[in-house]
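re the bet — no i am not wrong, look at it urself. input seq straight from the record:
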Amino acid sequence: MRKRVCFVCLAFLVAISLTLSACCKPAETPTATPVEEPTKAPVEEPPEEKVMIRMSTWAGVDESAELQEVIDEVNVQVDHFEIVHEPAPDDYYTKIQTALAGGTAADLFWLSQEWIAGMAADGALLDITDYLQGDSAAIHPAADLADYFPSIISTAAYEGRYYGLPWIAQPVVMFYNKALFDAAGMDYPTLDWTWDDFEAAAEKLTQDTDGDGSNDQWGFTMNGWPPPQMFVWQAGGEVVSADLTESPIDTPEAIAGFDFYAGMIYDDVHCPPEAVIQEQGSGEMFKAGKIATFMGGAADDLDRVEGLDVGVVAVPAGPAGRPTFAWTASTVVAAQTEHPDVAYEALVMLTEGIHHWKIVSPRKSMANAESITAAEPRKAATAADIAEAVPYMRAFNVLPRHQEWDSIFWGDFMDPLFHGEGTAAELAPEIRPDLEALLP
């Protein structure tokens, strides 16, 4: 900080100096010509206090500690704002909605993809489109919209305007237990795998290993995860059209995807029964060596479980290819923020930092093995395999009333289908009108 001169003190000293000079002059000396006081320079205004930018997230203890390191790196670069993290891992969305309604929301907060359109439509989020268009990628690389995967950045948009920046694009990949494949004398999964290869392998890997008459090892697991929408896409179908005008869940392609999913879930031929999953948990069963293949997010820790030799590969391809679901979330700015300019700057700087922390980055320039390894060194062995899955990822087509749509999709369609209360061909035509009634 520059030191400021106290001009009041300087004037006082000058006055004293002049007085002393006058006192020392001989009495007969004529009165001196008055000396003009020096013009006072304007006093420099004190610097403004730092703006506090509050940020809410769902981060738990460990994730909060890691995020704080990213926040600290941003805060040290600036002297006009400071980001303060306010984690709320429990009842997160209830707290966010309550704070927005009460006018006490944080300046920045996290939203997963299915929430953004609705909150934007309600006017709760700041439109940052003009900020992004006026920004420079050379200064703020995370502001370069052209560097984001189109399907991912679209989740932060509503009606052609942007309301946040994605900080992760986590594609679903297939983890596999090499020891179980070795014991069955089977080759490991490859990018050549189709639905048929996958289904046959899952059946062969479902076994009664202790001879008690009940299976205790399964080839795969389903319980609503991975998302059934992914298999609809792989069959060439859709659940919500890109223009948000239809929910074509009853097309032949969509039915094929739902049938494939329903034909394996809970069947004890390919996947464990529902009661077993509820008792033991799908992820925990994989970690315990009871599941041979598991579809999870690329950032999951399933490829570094102690005692397991786990490989990673892109998901098998369906009749129309291998599109895979990408879970994505964005940081948004509350419309009620008192500091929109500063909040945007904090957003774009923080997003850049998170892109170097979370995998997979939603930016094309960073979605590669090198960047994945740099962000998460524990993924070094599988980073190249994860990167191979990146070109196939896509997010949901999200609508403003997504939560209501989801409730009907799962409660009135998926759940009955999973429990044999009707086929996809029977249920889908009945449910489609209810879903389409919620479209914009």
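see?? The two ends are 54 Å apart (CA to CA). told u. also Residues 1-47 have pLDDT under 50 and may be disordered. so pay up
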